[in-house]
Amino acid sequence: MDFMQQSTPKINGFNNSHCQLKIVNYEAEENSISHETHGLSKKHLVVRRGKPFKLTLWFHWRLWNPHTEYPVLEVFLGNHSDRIIVQISDEQHDPQGWSAKIYPGDIQSKSVTIHICSPVNSPVAQYYLFLHIETMHRSRSTFEVGTFVLLCNPWLKEDPVYMPLKAQREEYIKNDCGILFTGTPQNINERPWMFGQYEPGVLEACMKLLQVSRWHFNNKEKDYIRRADPVYLSRVICAMVNCDDDLGILMGNWSGDYKDGVSPAEWSSSADILHQWALSNCKPVRYGQCWVFASVLCTVMRVLGVPSRVVTVFNAAHDANSNLIIEENFSSSGEKLPGPKDSTWNFHVWVECWMRRPDLGSAFDGWQVVDATPQEKSGGIYCCGPCPVIAIHQRFLRTSFDTRFIYAAVDADVVRLIIHNGRVMKRTVDTKTVGRLICTKSIGSDLLENLTQDYKSKTKPQAAGYGRYSGWRGGQDRPMSRDVRMSGTPFLSSSVGHQEDGGILEYSQMSDGEEEMPPGLEVSLSLKRVPTVGESIVMCVTVRNNSSSSRVLMEHVNAQLKEYNRNAQESFWKSHKEECIKAGEVLKLEHSILSSEYESVLADDDIMNVAVVIKDVLTKERFLATQEFNVTSPKITVEIEGGGSIQMKKEYKAHVSFTNTCSSSVNGAVLTVEGSGLLQGKQEARMAILKQDEKIEKTVTIMAAGPGTKLLKATFSHSNSPKAISRTFHKVTAVSA
């Protein structure tokens, strides 16, 4: 912002004998450093609540006459205003109310420096400031001083978002670059993300978001007052990041068809999304999925001063009917069938925001889950949270907000059914798979920090059987216990299930995602190693015969592709064969899926579902084991002249290459390079045919216009596949010369 601004009088009738304000010096550099807001805006003075900031006022001829005149500041927010008597004092400010002080050494003949302090519970908003010079005779002259933006203050102990450790504040407020974790627990993908809170226009977009919310339209004054509460703020922003109910930022799309927008996988910067939304007069940006919603939400909350971090839940349950159970159906040959509305996503991404919860009590202070991905409505709108992480861990499922839904995402049970001719042939319960790993980026490094123990206790109530699932009993003030034996209609649909005696459906239990069988047969499925494109997928089915007799078995193995949050597609690979196993024998059956059998159908983000069904030919009993994993994409290599650090406004060469590790040639190979703040537009290299082990490469010239971390993105695709085969993001740090 400008360091100086000409002031304009709001009423007329001045003459040279009056005190008249001429120029306002916002002391922008000093205030922004003191308030930890440096770089957030060049248009506005940005300060934090509960901490003094200063303005220097220059007058035309003289200051006010201390014997007959006195200065009063008035702060406006909407239709509400606060009068602040300016005092000459060297006492400390009281952060519980507005105050304005002039220290004795700050008075000059034509200028004065005023230190202004807002209440610690001030709403987050843009304020308007006026100066009145009032006389003992109740006449006054009024001048427009200007505007300032007030944010939450995690540096101040009295603020409900106070975060005590400097390293935490540096990471969860000031860091503008993060790491997102996707894939599967066995093969985690890392991708950088630019939160971009210091990019020009981002703070203004965040403030605009508050001004166009449905809450602000419905009742401006009430909305302004409630913005003092980070619980309210987080809920409003959560709803506004998606566009399902309002003028929100992002439109979700999980169809795979992104022709009229941008594929969610192509985004790498919150600033790009916020700029597009703000410049389009609040039209939703197309398209987002969970990690995009979460990353934009994290950016906005950090800008507003609420410590936030992006969290990934691997094997996250979407429990649409709130029974804490996810049902998965398999055919008798091991094919995963389209299921009910409930599902398990291979990963889901949300945000944790740090705040006190006076509405619940201090026991629920700390990290709160806030999920902007539009899944289910909460209070009639598409938002989720804030929900205390401690409430999930302690199973207080009636705690505000949406704790039951979020608890299910990390700790629901998966019921797997083998279906044959409309009948349930086998039921098993997996109590371990959901929420297998919950993680975020570590403080001060790009390493993964495991948060699973914060969400899940080591012990979990075990169920002997399930009927209609009533969930947890009890109130908000005490731990709840699971009711697992309820009479009535079972939760299974009538087309595939049947009611057993007393309405109780019996299941065998699972351990660590593997099936724990009764005495007889035990079946498990494992990978030899996590495969990379070009390698065979080698699996081992282990069958242990605990009985005293030999058995004849029919083995069915099935492989399907799926996206991280969708039903499996049609099988692309199958195996059926008969095996004999002796009493007490352990049988190991190895299978290989050749790279040529999956490369034509596999894309960069696809997940592979493999299942085995073992059938006892004599007893007709069936046993199921499953694995879901992602195949590692071939790498794109990025080499930048001078390493990972470059000087601003100086040209550098970046060499990008991709080697075809597939088992055969590919047609229509395209290597695309782009980078916001580094490169104008997209640059491509094309080859009609890229043979096996052949390289495609592109050298581009990059130059950083401004300082900070930038991302150079490279993507490889070919005409044999509708999606990108490989994608990489390379971080570049730009420094002043």
How many helices does DSSP assign? 12
Mean pLDDT: 88
Strand tally is 43
CATH superfamily of the largest domain: Transglutaminase-like
Structural domains: how many: 4
Proportion of beta-strand residues:
35-45%
Q: Note the gap between the termini.
A: 23 Å
Largest sheet: 11 strands, mixed
Name of the level-1 CATH class of the largest domain = Alpha Beta
Description:
Residues 282-374 form the Transglutaminase-like domain. Belongs to the transglutaminase superfamily. Transglutaminase family. This is Protein-glutamine gamma-glutamyltransferase 5-like. This protein is mostly beta strands and 737 residues long. The chain folds into four domains: 21-151, Immunoglobulins (Immunoglobulin-like); 166-454, Transglutaminase-like (Coagulation Factor XIII, Chain A, domain 2, Alpha-Beta Complex), CATH 3.90.260; 521-630, Immunoglobulins (Immunoglobulin-like, Sandwich), CATH 2.60.40; 636-735, Immunoglobulin-like. 13% of the residues lie in helices and 40% in strands. It is built from twelve helices and 43 strands. Strands 1, 2, 3, 4, 5, 6, 7, 8, 9, 10 and 11 form an eleven-stranded mixed beta sheet that branches. The chain has a six-stranded antiparallel beta sheet with strand order 20-19-18-16-23-24, with helices on both faces. It has a five-stranded mixed beta sheet with strand order 17-21-22-27-28, with no helix packed on it. Mean pLDDT is 88; it is low at 11-17 and 463-518.
